[in-house]
């Protein structure tokens, strides 16, 4: 078992609870952690035997294009997409951050973190 991580991905997107946030947009950060078996890729040096980082990035970027009211919902969608695309992944953890959230005071970022393990029925 091993972990693949894509940390510090940044996007400008149009998420937020308030309509105004969805119009003006904001900067978001995403950190993604995948637990999967990396033995075959390590032994073979073959990209086809692991999870392609570019594909992971593209799946996250596509979800960032579709507006969401809640960071929780956005993170849930990212996890759904990744588990659907890669049936051999054991678990996914994603953190989604909104930079400078409109809270009426100074706050560098608001962040939610979601984790999901694949169930044996999936």
UniProtKB/TrEMBL annotation:
Its EC number is 4.1.2.25. Residues 4-116 form the Dihydroneopterin aldolase/epimerase domain. Catalyzes the conversion of 7,8-dihydroneopterin to 6-hydroxymethyl-7,8-dihydropterin. Belongs to the DHNA family. The keyword Nucleotidyltransferase does not apply. Keywords: Folate biosynthesis, Lyase. The gene is folB. Pathway: Cofactor biosynthesis; tetrahydrofolate biosynthesis; 2-amino-4-hydroxy-6-hydroxymethyl-7,8-dihydropteridine diphosphate from 7,8-dihydroneopterin triphosphate: step 3/4. It catalyses: 7,8-dihydroneopterin = 6-hydroxymethyl-7,8-dihydropterin + glycolaldehyde. InterPro entries: Dihydroneopterin_aldolase, FolB_dom, GTP-CH-I_C/QueF. This is 7,8-dihydroneopterin aldolase. Pfam families: FolB.
């Amino acid at each position: 078992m091993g972990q693949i991580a894509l940390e510090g991905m940044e996007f400008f997107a149009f998420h937020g609870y308030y309509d105004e946030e969805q119009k003006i947009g904001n900067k978001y950060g995403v950190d993604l952690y995948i637990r999967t078996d990396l033995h075959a890729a390590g032994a073979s040096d073959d990209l086809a035997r692991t999870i392609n980082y570019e594909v992971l990035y593209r799946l996250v970027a596509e979800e960032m294009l579709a507006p969401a009211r809640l960071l929780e919902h956005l993170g849930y969608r990212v996890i759904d997409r990744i588990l659907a695309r890669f049936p051999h992944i054991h678990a996914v953890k994603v953190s989604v951050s909104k930079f400078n959230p409109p809270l009426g005071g100074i706050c560098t970022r608001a962040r939610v973190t979601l984790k999901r393990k694949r169930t044996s029925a999936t």
